C-alpha cells in the first residue's frame, strides 16, 4: 500500500543573521491511511516545524532546503491517484492553497488564536467548505451543523451562530476539529491539540479524534511533548531531538523497550507508578546544543549517560538504522555493535 | 514526640469576585472562585492542591499570600518564633508586613516572574535589602549561598534573566523565594512551563531543599503524577470546593469520590497496554458563576442519584484523615490507580 504521506530526508533551515538554524535536519517518515504517527520531542526539537513544512507554512526566514514531502492524492482529472511533492510546489500558489484545508488540515494548540474572533464559528467552517468544494450556502450550512454535531458539540444548530469566545476551551477545540475535518482531508496534522486543556477534557478530545479517524480514515500526524498522550493515540512514534529522528518504532514497542538513550532518559524523567514516592527523578544533564551549530555525529553526545564519551558517537555521521521490523534507531553504539 | 504542629490552617475559606454590569457598575452576580475550602499544612510537609483550570486552586494560593482578601473564612498562620497564631484573612497590611518573609511564592511562568532589567544579584538582593536582613559583605555571602543552593554558580550573578533557560530561571525564582528563610513556600504550577527533563531537575531540587531546610510546601498543580510524587497529603478541588482531602497514598490507591476516580483514569499513560477502562466524563467543568445546585459535580457524575442535585454534600471523614464530599462515599466502590492500571 502506498502511504498517505511520505517524507524523505526533509531539511528545513532558518537563515538568521546569527547563523543557520537547522530546525529539521534530515527527517524521514511515512504515515498510512487511517494511522496515527506521534511526533514527540522537547521544545526546540523541531517537531512543530515538521508539521508546518507539510502545510508549507514555515515562517520566514525558514526554508525547505532539501527533501521530499510526497502526498498521495487524486490526480487532476480525478480518476487516478498521483503522488505530489509538496516540497517543490509554490507555497503561495493556487495548488498549495487548494491542498491546505482540503487534503491536509491542521489543528493548533490554542484554538482561541486560530479562529477569527470577529466571525461566527459557523461562518468559518462554511467558508472552509465552500472554498474547497462546490456546494450551495444551504448545503454547506447543513454540513457544518452535521460536523459540529459529530464532534460532540451539543445543540449544533444553535452553536453554529456563536463566536469563538462564547465557547469553553474544550468546545473551541471541538469546533476547531470540526473546521479541520469538514472537507474530509486525507491528512490531519494536530500540533499539541490538547496541551491547553484539562485532563478530563483532554481525554474527551483524544477519544473524539480516535473515533473520527476510524470513521473518516484520515492519516494523522500528532505532535506533542506529552509522552502519555503520544502513547495513547499513536500507532507509530517518532522521537525527535535537535531536528533529527532519534528513534522510530511502533508505540507499544517504543514505550515498552525503548532503545535510544534519549528515549529512555525522557521516559525515566516523568514519575511513574514504579518510581518511589519523593525519590529523585532521573534528569538529563546539560542543555540542548547551540541551535546554530552543525553537528555531524549524534546530537545527544555529551548528555548521553550510556556512551561514556565514546568517540564513535561524536564522529560517526548521523544515520537512522533499522534494528527490527518497523523499529529504527539513530544511536551509533547500538547500530555499529549490531 | 509531640504532635506535628500545623503551620497553616485554612478554615472554610471563600472568595467571591463580584461581577459588575451597566452604567452604575451594579453587582449582578458573583464568581464563586473559592467556596468553602479547609485544609491544614504541617510544618515541613507538602500539601498538593490539584484541580482543573478554573477550580480556584490559584486563588487559594493568592489568598494565603495576601494578594486577595478572602470573602470569608480564616487562614491561621503559626509564626515560627512561637508567637500566637494570626489570621491572615483579616490581618491589617501593617501587621502582615513582618509575616511576609515567612511565606514565599514561586510562580508558573519563569519568563514573566523575573524583572528583565535586574541582574540575578539584584534580584536576590532585593528581598534581603528591603527587609533589612543583610547588607554589605554579609549580603554578598548570603547571595552566594543562595545561588549555590539552587545549583547555579557565582559567575551567573552578574547576568540578566534573558541569558538563562527556563529551568535556570525557575532556579533563580526559587533562590529568591528562599532568601528570607521562609517556613512555607507556595508553588503555583512551578514546572508546567518546563520540558520534562528540566521539570525533573526542578522537582529534585525542590525535594532536596525541603529536606535541607525543613520547609512546608503548598504545591499547586494540575499534574497528578507530580502531585503523587511530591505530596504527603492532597486536596482535590472542583469548582471552588474540596471534593477529596486525604493522604496521597490512599487517595491514589483507593479514591472515594467519583471525580477523583475519573481524573485518575484520564491521565495519559505511556503504557497503554496496562491501562484499564477510561472514564470519559461528559461536558465541561461547572461554571463558578452559577454552579449547579447540590453537588457541583452531579451533572457529570456517573453515579449521581436523586439527592445529589439537591443537597450539597458536606466534607466528611470516611476513614481517619480521609475526607470526602460525596453523599455515597461509603457505598460506592471506586477503583484507584492500581485497579485502573493507570501508570502515573
Overview of the molecule:
The complex is a heterodimer of chains A (338) and B (344). Chain A is built from 13 helices and twelve strands. Chain A is α/β, with parallel strands linked by helices and 338 residues long. In chain A, α5 crosses α7 (169-181). Chain B is of the alpha/beta class. Chain B contains ten helices and twelve strands. Chain B has helices at 57-65, 93-96, 120-130, 136-149, 166-178, 196-213, 224-230, 248-253, 258-266, 337-340; strands at 6-21, 26-42, 46-50, 72-77, 86-87, 103-106, 184-188, 216-221, 233-238, 241-247, 316-319, 322-324. In chain B, α6 (196-213) links the parallel β7 (184-188) and β8. The mean pLDDT of chain B is 89. The A-B interface holds A 42-43, 168-171, 198-204, 206-207, 225-229, 231-232, 251-252, 255-256, 265-267, 269-273, 275, 277-278, 280-284, 287 and B 52-53, 165, 195-197, 199-201, 203-204, 207, 222, 224-226, 228-230, 248-249, 262-263, 265-273, 275, 278, 280-281, 284-285, 337-338, 342-344.
Summarize the structure.
The complex is a heterodimer of chains A (338) and B (344). Chain A is of the alpha/beta class and 338 residues long. Chain A is built from 13 helices and 12 strands.
Please write out the topology.
The complex is a heterodimer of chains A (338) and B (344).
Chain A: E1 5-16, E2 19-31, E3 36-40, H1 47-55, E4 62-74, E5 81-85, H2 94-99, E6 104-107, H3 111-114, H4 121-132, H5 137-150, H6 156-159, H7 169-181, E7 187-191, H8 199-216, E8 219-224, H9 227-233, E9 236-241, E10 244-250, H10 251-256, H11 261-268, H12 311-315, E11 321-324, E12 327-329, H13 332-337
Parallel strand pairs in A: 3-8, 3-9, 6-7, 7-8
Antiparallel strand pairs in A: 1-2, 1-4, 4-5, 9-10, 10-12, 11-12
Helix pairs in contact in A: 4-5, 4-7, 5-7, 7-8
Chain B: E1 6-21, E2 26-42, E3 46-50, H1 57-65, E4 72-77, E5 86-87, H2 93-96, E6 103-106, H3 120-130, H4 136-149, H5 166-178, E7 184-188, H6 196-213, E8 216-221, H7 224-230, E9 233-238, E10 241-247, H8 248-253, H9 258-266, E11 316-319, E12 322-324, H10 337-340
Parallel strand pairs in B: 3-8, 3-9, 6-7, 7-8
Antiparallel strand pairs in B: 1-2, 1-4, 4-5, 9-10, 10-12, 11-12
Amino acid at each position: 500500500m502506498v502511504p498517505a504521506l511520505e517524507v524523505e530526508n526533509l531539511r528545513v533551515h532558518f537563515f538568521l543573521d546569527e547563523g543557520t538554524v537547522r530546525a529539521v535536519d534530515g527527517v524521514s517518515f511515512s504515515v498510512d491511511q487511517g494511522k496515527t504517527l506521534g511526533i514527540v520531542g522537547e521544545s526546540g526539537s523541531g517537531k512543530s516545524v515538521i508539521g508546518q513544512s507539510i502545510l508549507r507554512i514555515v515562517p520566514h526566514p525558514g526554508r525547505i532546503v532539501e527533501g521530499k514531502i510526497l502526498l498521495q492524492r487524486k490526480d487532476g482529472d480525478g480518476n487516478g491517484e498521483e503522488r505530489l511533492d509538496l516540497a517543490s510546489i509554490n507555497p503561495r500558489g493556487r495548488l498549495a492553497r487548494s491542498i491546505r484545508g482540503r487534503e491536509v488540515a491542521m489543528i493548533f494548540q490554542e484554538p482561541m488564536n486560530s479562529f477569527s474572533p470577529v466571525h461566527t464559528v459557523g461562518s468559518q467552517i462554511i467558508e472552509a467548505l465552500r472554498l474547497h468544494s462546490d456546494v450551495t450556502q444551504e448545503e454547506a450550512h447543513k454540513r457544518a451543523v452535521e460536523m459540529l454535531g459529530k464532534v460532540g458539540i451539543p445543540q449544533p444548530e444553535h452553536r453554529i451562530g456563536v463566536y469563538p469566545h462564547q465557547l469553553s476551551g474544550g468546545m473551541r477545540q471541538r469546533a476547531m476539529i470540526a473546521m479541520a475535518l469538514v472537507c474530509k482531508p486525507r491528512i490531519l496534522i494536530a500540533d499539541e491539540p490538547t496541551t491547553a486543556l484539562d485532563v478530563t477534557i483532554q481525554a474527551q478530545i483524544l477519544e473524539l479524534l480516535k473515533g473520527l479517524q476510524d470513521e473518516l480514515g484520515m492519516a494523522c500526524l500528532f505532535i506533542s511533548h506529552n509522552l502519555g498522550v503520544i502513547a495513547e493515540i499513536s500507532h507509530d512514534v517518532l522521537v525527535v531531538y535537535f531536528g533529527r529522528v532519534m528513534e522510530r518504532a511502533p508505540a507499544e514497542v517504543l514505550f515498552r523497550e525503548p532503545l535510544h538513550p534519549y528515549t529512555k532518559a525522557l521516559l525515566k524523567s516523568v514519575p511513574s507508578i514504579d518510581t518511589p514516592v519523593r525519590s529523585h527523578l532521573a534528569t538529563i544533564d546539560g542543555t540542548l546544543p547551540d541551535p546554530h551549530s552543525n553537528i555531524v555525529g549524534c546530537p545527544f553526545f555529551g548528555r548521553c549517560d550510556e556512551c561514556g564519551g565514546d568517540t564513535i558517537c561524536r564522529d560517526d555521521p548521523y544515520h537512522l538504522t533499522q534494528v527490527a521490523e518497523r523499529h529504527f534507531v539513530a544511536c551509533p553504539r547500538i547500530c555499529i555493535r549490531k | 514526640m509531640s504532635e506535628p504542629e500545623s503551620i497553616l490552617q485554612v478554615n472554610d475559606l471563600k472568595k467571591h469576585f463580584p461581577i459588575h454590569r451597566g452604567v452604575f457598575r451594579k453587582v449582578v452576580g458573583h464568581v464563586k472562585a473559592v467556596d468553602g475550602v479547609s485544609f491544614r499544612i504541617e510544618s515541613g510537609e507538602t500539601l498538593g492542591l490539584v484541580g482543573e483550570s478554573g477550580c480556584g486552586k490559584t486563588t487559594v494560593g493568592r489568598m494565603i499570600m495576601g494578594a486577595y482578601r478572602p470573602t470569608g473564612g480564616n487562614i491561621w498562620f503559626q509564626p515560627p518564633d512561637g508567637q500566637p497564631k494570626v489570621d491572615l484573612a483579616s490581618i491589617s497590611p501593617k501587621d502582615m508586613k513582618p509575616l511576609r518573609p515567612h511565606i514565599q511564592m514561586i510562580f508558573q511562568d519563569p519568563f514573566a516572574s523575573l524583572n528583565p532589567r535586574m541582574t540575578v544579584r539584584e534580584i536576590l538582593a532585593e528581598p534581603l535589602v528591603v527587609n533589612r536582613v543583610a547588607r554589605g559583605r554579609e549580603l554578598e555571602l548570603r547571595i552566594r549561598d543562595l545561588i549555590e543552593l539552587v545549583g547555579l554558580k557565582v559567575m551567573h550573578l552578574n547576568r540578566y534573566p534573558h541569558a538563562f533557560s527556563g529551568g535556570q530561571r525557575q532556579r533563580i525564582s526559587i533562590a529568591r523565594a528562599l532568601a528570607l528563610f521562609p517556613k512555607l513556600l507556595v508553588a503555583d504550577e512551578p514546572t508546567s512551563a518546563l520540558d520534562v527533563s528540566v521539570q525533573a531537575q526542578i522537582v529534585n531540587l525542590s525535594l532536596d531543599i525541603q529536606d535541607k531546610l525543613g520547609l512546608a510546601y503548598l504545591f499547586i498543580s494540575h499534574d497528578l503524577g507530580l502531585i503523587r510524587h511530591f505530596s504527603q497529603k492532597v486536596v482535590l478541588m472542583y469548582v471552588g470546593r474540596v471534593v477529596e482531602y486525604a493522604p496521597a497514598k490512599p487517595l491514589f490507591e483507593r479514591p472515594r469520590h467519583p471525580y477523583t476516580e475519573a481524573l485518575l483514569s484520564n491521565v495519559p499513560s505511556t503504557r497503554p497496554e496496562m491501562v484499564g477502562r477510561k472514564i470519559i466524563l461528559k461536558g465541561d467543568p461547572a461554571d463558578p458563576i452559577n454552579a449547579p445546585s447540590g453537588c457541583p459535580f452531579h451533572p457529570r457524575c456517573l453515579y449521581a442519584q436523586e439527592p445529589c442535585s439537591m443537597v450539597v454534600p458536606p466534607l466528611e471523614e470516611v476513614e481517619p484523615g480521609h475526607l470526602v464530599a460525596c453523599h455515597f462515599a461509603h457505598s460506592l466502590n471506586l477503583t484507584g490507580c492500581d485497579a485502573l492500571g493507570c501508570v502515573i
